DNA sequence: GTAATTGCAAATTCTTTGCACATAT
DNA sequence: ATATGTGCAAAGAATTTGCAATTAC
């Protein structure tokens, strides 16, 4: 966990589990133990988890699910809108609970891997204007700022981020 | 090719070939036909090429190189500073000739795949300020704006971008 | 001549798919 | 009951690596 405040309101694991249960019911999809467990892990976490990390969290909590199921459920979670997919250029994807934030950017520490989030309205407006100037209809954008966090610069960090 | 003006100065295939030859010599690395051919393709192109596309360009020009050699040479080109690696979240990397631009952003058409480049000083300053506010030492940043280009919106496009 | 590169194929990493078996409704 | 999900293992896609044959210097 980073020490900075998160953007938006975080949801509890319970809310994640129940929210996904409702969504599955609405869509006439079977509610299985694996699906609820995966939803609880991803939505209950404040981090950006990879598929593998989701599987690890599961087994460390007594639950377990095959790799295929993890991927298939993450796909459902993204389609439900409860989870958002992220690509930090690491060669694999990460998944993050969708909070009540329309959009936010990421600061990535290249030393410890810590991810910090922020929102900036100016950036929102700026990308729209830039797109228009190039005759593009802006759909969305993605900004990742890479750098070194304070803890790593000062050698203060005691616990590894990931 | 997009119709908008490119950022910075483009280099010719010849310049790419010779520039890489010099770099190889300076680093006591063998100058091979494959290396020069790959440099010519990547640096001579105004596009963002994938490793596979580089291999295709090669064979269509009579040259040829194994996949491993293409990847190994792209790695050298990146390390030489003559080529820059890009990640547009497609699941694979693209490589672009490094021009005299310190940094530029990308507009990506989600319909035809066209990539347009632009530079924005405000963004440069903004990311530095944002990083500082979060106690990060900014190293670099990456902004990709996704949208639909004018040609695709109007159905005007006649030639596929990729 | 000797050290480095090349190309092929096998190995890796992340992700998807096919299929027999298990489970939700 | 019956459609759907699950897990395993095989398949895929992009990229890397081991190694014998080849080439640069």
Tags for this model:
homodimer, Arc Repressor Mutant, subunit A, 42% helix, alpha+beta, Dna Ligase, domain 1, 162 residues, 3-stranded antiparallel beta sheet, 6 helices, 3-stranded mixed beta sheet, DNA-binding
Structure description:
- The structure is a homodimer of 162-residue chains.
- The first copy, chain A, has six helices and six strands.
- The first copy, chain A, has 162 residues and is of the alpha+beta class.
- In chain A, the strands form two sheets. A three-stranded antiparallel sheet of chain A has the order 1-3-2. In chain A, strands 5-4-6 form a three-stranded mixed sheet.
- Chain A is globular and about 50 Å long.
- Chains A and B meet through strand 4, helix 5 and strand 6 of A and strand 4, helix 5 and strand 6 of B.
- Strand 6 of chain A pairs antiparallel with strand 6 of chain B, so a sheet runs across the interface.
- Chain A binds a DNA duplex (25 and 25 nucleotides) through helix 2 and helix 4.
How do the helices and strands line up, and which of them pair or pack?
2 copies of one chain form a homodimer.
Chain A: H1 13-26, H2 33-44, E1 49-50, H3 51-60, H4 67-80, E2 83-86, E3 94-97, E4 105-109, E5 115-118, H5 121-133, E6 136-149, H6 150-154
Parallel strand pairs in A: 4-6
Antiparallel strand pairs in A: 1-3, 2-3, 4-5
The structure holds a DNA duplex (25 and 25 nucleotides).
